[in-house]
Amino acid sequence: MDFSLTPAQVEYRERIRTLIREVHRPEHTERQHRTGTFDSPEINRALAAGGFLERAIPGYGDGDPIELWMLFNELEKAAVPADGIAMALMVAGVIAYVGTEAQKAEFLPQVLAGDTLVSLGYSEPECGSDVASAQTRAVRDGDDWVVNGAKMWTTMAHVAKWVLLLTRTDPDVPKHRGLTFFLIPLDLPGITIDAVYTMGTERTNATFYDDVRVPDRYRVGEVDGGWRVMAVALAFERGLMGGTAAGVPLLRHFHHWAANVRDDDGRRLVDDPLVRERMVRVAVDNEVAALMTLRTAYIAATGGLPGLEGSMVKVHATEAYQRAARWFSEAAAPAALLQFDQPGAAAEGWIEYDLRHSPVTTIYGGTSEINRNNIAERHLGLPKAR
Ligand SMILES: Cc1cc2nc3c(=O)[nH]c(=O)nc-3n(C[C@H](O)[C@H](O)[C@H](O)COP(=O)(O)OP(=O)(O)OC[C@H]3O[C@@H](n4cnc5c(N)ncnc54)[C@H](O)[C@@H]3O)c2cc1C
Fold this sequence. Notes:
Layout: H1 7-23, H2 26-35, H3 41-49, H4 52-56, H5 65-77, H6 83-98, H7 101-112, E1 118-121, E2 137-141, E3 144-151, E4 162-168, E5 179-185, E6 191-197, E7 203-215, E8 219-220, H8 226-237, H9 247-258, H10 273-301, H11 307-332, H12 350-361, H13 368-378
Parallel strand pairs: 1-4
Antiparallel strand pairs: 2-3, 3-7, 4-5, 5-8, 6-7
Flavin-adenine dinucleotide (FAD) binds near residues 119, 198, 367, 370 and 385.
């Protein structure tokens, strides 16, 4: 496994860093914390104008998964709100892999323009981990399908144009075999979107589908072949598209603050041996996460789907992030309880935010328990948990 980057990839990374420096502003971060929408339209448009999005979609254009990893790694390290564009590119990758030519022609240019977001409609009120139990029904009616049901946690639906919707098309076969995906516009009649605010700041949504007529051309993959489409989507989601480097800005924010704050005796927090030890542990965890992420990118770049490796890096990186947020908030107490707009907040509020946000990262995109089951069964060959 060779992790060294080609000169062209190094140059590509430099161009992303320059773009972030030029376009990202503190008010975009402030907007993320105020609205709970983790998206930056300014960055999305600039990435589109610079030709970065096309190169970051696996299976499309001249790009490869290394560039996909690099783009999200740089955005995440710079703490740029990028969940919106990540989901859009992930679905673009799915369409590039399994979509029809007509779907590619209609959908991909919209995403590549940097102004069209896409939400993921997998989870339901009664099923998240066991997503193959989805009950949202799609019933064939002539050239259309009629969709009825409810989805939970449809993040970005309030600003997205499309939803990648998992539906049940055959209730009479084993659950994994009766599922079908659709990529449908969210402005179709019969769709309702309700806000859900979470402890980690993020706004997500409950979405409802009431006799929504969906033309068959919006079906993605085979009828009842949804589980194969899901495998492609999950392989991109875990590892390649951000979510594994949140510890990097956390360490940077804490380090900067701890180097400047002093106790009553004039000692800097950063000189406390326990604090130093924890910072080193976080740096090591971050490095391990970076290498594991590179491994997923390498596997994808050489024709594989890094599902198992994605599970491994997600468990490691999100749990290390949660641990780091806890350590740093203990070290920064009581300033760690203060939020972004409150004077005296540790690291200008980042520590308080990371403490709330980090647990959520161990839930979405597959919980730690589900990823551990995946590793236990597929990597270690242990018996099935259920
Ligand atoms: C902020 C946020 C944003 C999200 N965004 C989206 C989105 O955009 N689109 C989308 O479709 N979904 C989204 N989700 C949903 C997310 O993927 C689910 O919350 C997650 O998969 C867990 O499902 P659940 O909430 O139904 O919990 P459950 O599946 O009910 O799990 C509850 C607990 O039981 C554990 N558990 C369940 N099954 C097992 C098992 N077999 N073995 C061991 N332990 C088990 C879980 O690990 C968890 O601790 C989002 C969630 C959050 C919190």
